[in-house]
Design brief:
Helix content is about 25%, strand content about 35%. It is of the alpha/beta class. The chain folds into 2 domains: about 5-90, no CATH class; about 110-260, no CATH class. Strands 7, 8, 9, 10, 11, 12, 13 and 14 form an 8-stranded mixed β-sheet that branches. Strands 1, 4, 5 and 6 form a 4-stranded mixed β-sheet that branches. A two-stranded antiparallel sheet has the order 2-3.
């Protein structure tokens, strides 16, 4: 039975016309699936479904998502990230015959927007805090490498929040039609930027936040380990949490150029 699939030109170019036509005809596409974005069930026979092709250094994986969550697209990822995605999709069962093993909780990046006052001026900011410890790809352990990994990418450790952090070139914040879509990082080998974080659905921001972003054409991004910031209901409480995290050496930051409007 034909599927309600969206296959973008970029995905078709990678998988070829023959494979794309087989997918659209329902030969190689599943009816039901777990959305690669929101992880809830979907049905390509009943609802619009996007084909999302993850491409690593050596391999590629075709996944499916609700069209309302993600458009059909090609996503460049590292080989380590791709292996992690395959484990997530397959439930990490040992298909080669070895014993199945427990998988650590998959961390999700929580993102909060707010205005931060620095030197008497309000700046638009994003605060990123994972829901679980982040370990270095390819390692097994119980530590948290979230901040070291970001420092290696160019984010600066903060002990006090009294100045705008340096601009991190190659990274950017994607704002479209007044909504927050993604934080982009440089692609491998000088390629197109790829999503470091992408909203399951575009996030609304306040008019004052958007106005400040358009004024400065840049956004401050702060990141802290799990449990450092929390979900603060007011911007003054968010600022207090940022100051506390910085004082305890648990905050990194960078200024990211604004992409979009």
């Amino acid at each position: 039975m034909p599927r309600m699939l969206d296959v973008s030109d970029a995905v078709r170019a990678e998988i070829g016309d023959e494979e794309a036509d087989r997918l659209l005809a329902g030969e190689n596409a599943p009816g039901s699936y777990d959305c690669t974005s929101c992880r809830t069930p979907g049905d390509s026979e009943q609802e619009r479904t996007s084909t999302v092709l993850f491409i690593g250094d050596e391999t590629a994986v075709l996944a499916f998502a609700h069209a309302s969550c993600l458009p059909s697209q090609v996503v460049q990822v590292t080989e380590e990230q791709l292996r992690g995605a395959v484990r997530s999709i397959s439930g990490d069962a040992a298909s080669a015959g070895g014993p199945a093993r427990a998988v650590p909780e998959q961390a999700v990046l929580g993102v909060t927007s707010g205005l931060v006052l620095i030197s008497g001026e309000l700046h638009p900011a994003l605060v990123v805090e994972p829901t679980a410890p982040i370990v270095r790809p390819g390692t097994i352990g119980t530590g948290d490498d979230f901040l070291p990994l970001l420092i290696e990418q160019g984010f600066m450790p903060l002990t006090v929040l009294n100045a705008v952090p340096p601009v991190l070139h190659g990274w950017s914040v994607l704002l479209a039609v007044g909504q927050l879509h993604a934080v982009l990082q440089p692609g491998g080998n000088g390629g197109q930027p790829v999503a470091w974080w992408q909203a399951h659905q575009p996030l609304q921001v306040t008019d004052s936040w958007r106005a400040a972003a358009n004024k400065h054409q840049q956004v401050l991004m702060f990141a802290a380990p799990v449990g450092s910031i929390g979900r603060q209901p007011r911007e003054d409480l968010l600022r207090d949490a940022l100051d506390t995290a910085a004082a305890h050496g648990k905050l990194v930051a960078a200024t990211l150029p604004l992409a979009g409007t």
